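Exam review. A common question shows you a sequence with its structure tokens and asks you to describe the fold in words. Practice with the pair below. Do the first one on your own.
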Amino acid sequence: MAITKQEYQSRMVNLRRKGEEHDLDAFLVSSKDSIFYLTGVSYEPFERPFFILVRPNAPCVLLVPALEKGHLQAAPNVDAVYSYWDYPSPEGQGWPERLLDLLKSGSSLGVEPSLPQEIASHLGSFSYRTLPLVEELRLVKSPAEIRMIRQAAHYADLAVGKVIRASYYGVSELELFSQSRTVQIQIMKNIGYDVLTTSVLAGAWPAPLSAQPHGVPTISDRLKEGPHIALCLDRVFGYAAECERTYFTAPATEEVRNAFSAMLEARRKAYSLIKSGASCAEIDAVAKDFLHDEGYGDFLLHRTGHGFGLGNHEGPWLAEGSTDVLASNMIISIEPGIYLPDIGGVRHSDTILVTDDGYEKLTHYSTDLESLTIRSSKPFTRLRGALIRRAVGMK
């Protein structure tokens, strides 16, 4: 299921072509995800920068720290791998000197939007342009990438199911976040594991903290009344997916049921517009306008969706102000949310493949209120939870 050497070579050819279209003498690739996208070689840069220099009529070269040179030789589509000593380095042996040696003074240079200021400060002699060339290549997924994301979506579904099945009234976050480990073990058992490109974040945001999508639960938090949000953000061999579900460990109040119903309808309206050629800003507007009309305008905190690929958040952006247009084989989320202060949030999120005339859902967990309301006491699950808490000294 891995990306082939031929596909990596094709990606580099396409990047060269984009550089030529912008009349660049060279394009400097420096972000970790971009280098992984172009080469398939996993690494962790820490404080040591890595570079690919792509030129239309010259060898494509990598510049890496000396301790990584042997590892990066595996890149299937670069002509040479150069190295610098370390970070920091003695004068004349660091990455700035090596990089400037490779660049020709006065050449037309393109750089990535994510270029760190530390690197930019050494490019003062160049009139460089910031261009999202690799990001543009990543928008539309190849058949191999879709297979990889479909695989990640399977494990995201699996993780959300494990979190919800492990839940009961009064369950601790410790018990729920421990489900990440069980999914990691399942991945290892089924397909192997690359520690640098595979990760699983699974758990639940308890009410009322679920009204703060980027709040941080503690392991001692308990799930009781209100809407909780179970989620999994994962990355499997470099490719990401997500699944999120609002669920309940006690019957929902009328106020929350109404918000839950409005969220589902906003999703339905957004889904009805998904197809190749659709405006991302229009999809966002239709979902948000509906929620405003329903009286939830003051309880919205974010856009309707975003893209997936190597990251859990990347283009295209289903957001007000976005100029992105959907194309077949893009991967997006649909996740309008309503956030009621001191009560909690309601949000489902799915990983979606855009097709010519519609979409395919890659995550499939139940979305209805009845299926997502836990009514049983789950005595054996409670006993297992008590043992987990005791193991870490938590009551």
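Now try the second one, then compare your answer with the model answer below.
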Amino acid sequence: MGLRKLLIILFLPGILFFACHPERDYIEDTDAHLTFTLDTLYFDTVFTTIGTITKSFRVKNIYNRFIKIQEISLAGGSSSVFRINVDGTPGLRFTNLEIAPRDSMFIFVEATLDPNNSGDILRIQDSIVFLTNGNLQDIDLVAWGQDVHIIREGLINENTTWSADKPYLVLNYAYVDSASVLTMEPGVKVHFHRDAILYVDGSLQVNGTVDEPVWFGGDRLEQFYEHFPGQWGLIYLTQNSRNNRISYAEITNGTFGILISAPPGSGLMPDLEISNTIINHMSANGIYALNAAIAGTNLVIGNCGGSSLGLVYGGDYAFTHCTFANYWYSWYSNRKLPALLLIDYFITDDDRDGVFELHSGGEFDRAEFNNSIIYGNEHSELAIESYEGLQLNYRFDHCLIRVNEDSLDYRNDPLFTSIISNEEPLFDSIPYSFQLDSLSPAIDAGLPAHAVEVPFDLEGNSRLEDSAPDLGAYEWTGG
């Protein structure tokens, strides 16, 4: 090969490189500015010491020439609660960055807030500063911080009271042992991390009020998660628990609202008195009870991926002026269980070998529903079933029910009295509190004798001041 050809081969890649990569043309006009996809980056209220989610925005070059950013810096420096990442690189200060014509770069931001030693929610602010062609621009960073009692793996082995001075955050579990009582005062808020559990072997006393209910929910405080189910585990009342009482509470966005159970043959029956409470947006069941005793009044159990109320195997149950209204969204999952499930058997499986075991022959001492609503968006929202075809001990009196009459012949069943079937209750606030519209057939359809036991509705309105009480947890007042 001749020298000339060899030199051409050796230098040709370099010639092509420089031919394809001409010297960059930068815009240096002092009037040239960066463009941003927002002017302020907000973080919803976050718990101190717990990191936020990562948020981002874009910095855009709207010109047909390269633009050079002399500096990007976090104004608060190393003392800031915020952290930034520029196009994949973390740091506090970045220099001599370029954005190609009509291109952009990403800025990622997160924060971990320090305790503020206050029960109040405080605003924390910083900014990201950009220096380009001598021009200063900035993006504000704003977060609100809330101090919190952190319970990682909490053992409660003495009588304990939680007050409303600041929220509680359960990261893994809180366990109430068999000799202890956990009491919650009005206004307490309990946040659960993913899969976290309140495990009660002893006694749970939730003492909310109409103005200051006790709240149970997830620890994601962004607006997107406000009504998102399955964010945390459950409240578990074990076979040993007793004298449980929940009054004026809101239980939302978990997997199970309340699981209360005792094994067949144990001779145990955990008990719960629950009133003036809303359970909503559970990915499994609102209340799942097996061999338990529950007295419920002014109880609302709304949208659940399973049953709003599942009464399984046996127990002693009485519900008066309750609303079981399941309008579960199909885009979450396909719901296969009715709003109210009453069966005398259950099936367990061993995850290790896939063996299924049937437990049948349970007995209900009582399962009665008075002045209540059982409705939803499925063809039938009530299922009553005995594995051995036995007559279960139930009673439905003055109720509005969505029922498939082909599978449940309630009209010829004396245990159903004064039933309104398959008429839309006309809730005016689906899927949240399920109050009645002015045209609801549930208005004045209740039996006064039942209302005497529960004279005021969930919001404190009297049921005894007109011709008859309304069905469900809410009395329509004309508002």
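Model answer, second protein: Residues 6-21 have pLDDT under 50 and may be disordered. The helical segments are 3-20, 448-453. Full marks require stating both points clearly.
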